[in-house]
Amino acid sequence: MSTIHLLEIEFANNGQSQSLTPVLLQDEHDTILVDCGYPDFMGLLEEAVARCGIQLDSITKLIVTHHDIDHIGSLAALKRTYPQMDIIAHELEVPFVEGKQKSLRLEQAESSLDELSGEARGHAEQFIHFLQSLEPAPVDQMVTHGEKLPWCGGIEIVHTPGHMAGHISLYLATTKTLIAGDAVVMEDGKLAIANPQFTLDMEEAIHSIQRLLTYDIEQIVCYHGGLFQGDAKQALRQLILAHTSKG
Residue 243 phi/psi, 5° resolution? Predict the structure, then answer.
């Protein structure tokens, strides 16, 4: 029997209150963390897992949905502190997580710099420096679409590109749960596309949501927004319809 813990982490960012929802999966053999927040999130993660009666040093695996800094910012620090923790990522994400290729988010930010001026350019330059500070980490296991990991009742890898090319979501068939990463987010109680300006390929993002409809999903956990309450499949259909009608 496996347990799903939603680690709702609240923090201040540039004077504003924000929250992220990493997920912790646990069975009698493994404790698996999905995504790990910004740099210097170790203390916040420690507090969040402690509320579930768990300690960070008991985590055996860390699954990365994609290489954005709010998802892997503390990855290197966690691996350094707990080297027994295996890091798992989609094959397309591995060179970015390991720092062998420049972050796609960094490329996007740099490419937009010439179009900006004044205060907007200053904010963009700050963001670029922030992205450049991200410490790479070694990946222990690569995964691909459709792969079924045997831990915590079974974890199916769902390749959901769009936000980033190697983005994955996780499907837990035993509880009909989708851990969405940034494939979808919650805004005002509704599902939405994660920051359209940061979605590298919107058409792919919509195709990914269509792919999700092939799974028997009853609940969706969004990294931004937490647990979606309601008819998950109908909400996904409405999201597709809203974006295809715009096109």
Answer: -85, -35
In the block, tokens 């009742």 appear at 153
CA distance 198 to 67: 13
Q: Do residues 192 and 140 both lie within one domain?
A: yes
Domain that holds residue 124: 103-135
User: What CATH number does residue 168 fall under?
Assistant: 3.60.15.10
Same domain, 93 and 198: yes
Q: Tell me: do 60 and 11 sit in the same domain.
A: yes
Cβ atoms within 10 Å, residue 3: 14
Residue 247 has pLDDT above 60, yes or no: no
Q: For the segment 134-158, what is each residue's pLDDT rounded down to a tens digit? A: 999 999 999 999 999 999 999 999 9
How many domains would you assign to the chain?
2
> What confidence tier does 37 reach under pLDDT thresholds 50, 70, 90?
very high
CB of 206 closer than 8 Å to CB of 162? yes
Give the whole-angstrom CA distance, residue 41 versus residue 47.
10
Annotate 133-190 with DSSP letters as a single string.
Answer: TPPP---SEEE-TT-EE-STT-EEEEE--SSSTT-EEEEETTTTEEEEETSSEEETTE
Contacting residues for 91 by C-beta, under 8 A, at least 6 apart: 142, 143, 144, 166
Q: Does 185 share its domain with 216?
A: yes
Q: Are 209 and 223 contained in the same domain?
A: yes
Amino acid at 98: E
